[in-house]
Amino acid sequence: MRITQYYNNRIHSLKKQLIEFYLVILAIFHAVSIYIYLFWLKNTFPLYYFAGALVFYIYSYILIRRNFNISRIVNAYLHFSSLYISVIILNFIDDSLVGFIWLFPMPVCAYVFLKRKMVVYYMFYTMILMLLIMIYAKYFNHHFYDYDKKFLRPTNAATILANFSLVCLFIYYKIKISNLETKALKYTIKIKMKEKHLYKPNFLSKEPHYLIELSDKNKNDLIIDHRKLEILFFELDKYMKHNNYFTNPSIKISGLCSELKTNINYLSRAIDYKGYKNFNQYLNSLRIKHVKDLIKKSDLTKVTLMYIYTGAGFTSQATFNRVFKQLEGITPSEYIANQLLTDQKILAEP
Description:
By secondary structure, this protein is mainly α. It folds into two domains: 193 residues, no CATH class; 122 residues, Homeodomain-like (Arc Repressor Mutant, subunit A). The protein contains 13 helices and no strands. Helix 3 runs parallel beside helix 5. The longest helix has 44 residues.
């Protein structure tokens, strides 16, 4: 399973890279904020406030570099940052509600790093926290440090831009991670398809042929998109029947894969899903049906059997006879004799 391990390592590296990038950005932001409050605004409270956050970000960065559990670090960060941001929101809430935007990336961050139930948790956590902040602002003193209102507009603009950038960053990495997860899943399915015994009932049966004998424990491990297989087979069938392409004696599944822009493995799964053992059985079923149509439409007293089977794409009479009997239960000669007898009866009727 080296390929699976390769994908897992790539996914882990991307998540680690995203956190490192994110923490570096926040560390730079807080370092600049410390400089502004220390040398420009001369306000000590925000200075200690930002310095404490900077220490936390640097410590988190060190943990990530040492390969600590990413999920635990993300959970710790989201809880810490939400309380940290609450102070800023409360301080500016009387003049601006833009500070609430700092809470919006939290569920998106959880969506990238954590399980689905944790995403739901952080959505509710964010809404409850916003409600608690508004309640606190209404009944308690919430001005922790003074600020000049003339800086609100550029501050709000920077807040909106920063959080929009963060959300875009998370989504960008989520797409890259999802692509790798999809590749890993496809590889896992491919391996399990080879390892597990496929149940393939009688070709003529109308029962679904995509059933796979798996233990209860592993049933949910194998995911097959039946709708995509249905669509792919529809495209294949449409292509094969266009101008009777199946009558081409040199037709190969590899050429069809190129035309349909798919691969042999997936096309074979689509054919199997529709009840055929393999591509040859599907191809032969089209050709035999065409042979029967030719027999009905042709004057059997004037055409040869070779004309009929070569017209359907068969190059060998022995192969044609074997396939015909396999699918119809009788030989071509017997079928033609029955057809002639039926035609005579129809002509004899008054």
